[in-house]
Amino acid sequence: MSNKQVLLKSRPHGWPTADNFEVSEGNVPEPAAGQIVIETAYMSVDPYMRGRMNDVKSYVPPFQIGAPLQGGIVGKVIASNDGPFKEGTYVVGMGDWANYTVTDGAGYNAVDPDLAPLSYYLGILGMPGMTAYVGLKGVAEMKEGENLFVSAASGAVGQVVGQIGKNMGCHVAGSAGTDDKVAYLKDELGFDAAFNYKTEDVYKAVAATNPKGIDVYFENVGGPVLEAVISNLRMNARVALCGMISMYNSTLDDMPAGPRNMAILVGRSVRMQGFIVSNYPELCREWVGIGAGWLKEGKMQYRESVAEGLENAPQAFIDMLGGKNFGKQVVKLSDV
Prior knowledge:
Blueprint: E1 2-8, E2 21-27, E3 36-44, H1 49-52, E4 70-80, E5 90-96, E6 100-103, E7 109-110, H2 127-139, E8 147-150, H3 158-167, E9 171-176, H4 179-187, E10 193-196, H5 202-209, E11 214-219, H6 223-230, E12 233-241, H7 263-267, E13 271-274, H8 281-297, E14 304-308, H9 313-321, E15 328-332
Parallel strand pairs: 8-9, 8-11, 9-10, 11-12, 12-13, 14-15
Antiparallel strand pairs: 1-2, 3-4, 3-6, 3-15, 4-5, 5-7
Helix pairs in contact: 2-3, 2-8, 5-6
């Protein structure tokens, strides 16, 4: 057996390209004392990884040139040298962009492959689902019956945000980048309203889809959508700042202007707060139980885009940043 890895070849300036990545091949790692070897079944591709490609200080260290990229993985323990998990155990955690990862198991958790598809532990039962729950409950403190708006609503996080809102009896509206995604939000996920931000006037569409205003905004995009939302926020509204994908590939030369209507936040007593999901471990654990229960009861559904093969991970990452994915983007590496 050989171990393929995707390495960071160079740091992108603006949008990443295939030239920023390199696929290498080596031997399957051997576990040292206290370590395990995981064969990856699915690998997660997430927007935040773009920030780790830059050599800047952040809440997580940057990827290193010549080293494997890292992200969420779910797979099977195939070797254990007195490690924390027995051979045959399925686990989820942060691992290399590789067919096999060797680790001491820190940060990994065992999962039940019979409870849900393995890929769901990287999506609705993983970081995206936890992010949705933390943002709504821990940050925005959303209450039953409020008015919720979410951008990038058909994405890995957004589709969970909207369904949590519906299960809490909220009026839920969202934006997405294609007519198919808008139809999915309304016809399959039960959103009360949704619009295509690429083809409609954003200011008019935000107002039309939120006729009573917005109590909670779950922010994934930034740019003109954020500015339009600010104008429609209600008194004491809360904004959970999860991400701003519209700016991830911007440079200092083409950075878009910030919202021009920030003064509204003062007069309407709006609270706007950024958050990192890992800072809320108790809520993360709470979500796994709630999310799994809702899946079982048919109160939640989840859509994924699946790329096949490790060598296709860089293109899947680039396409995800460009909005070409539909739902959570994962890469399938094996059938373990």
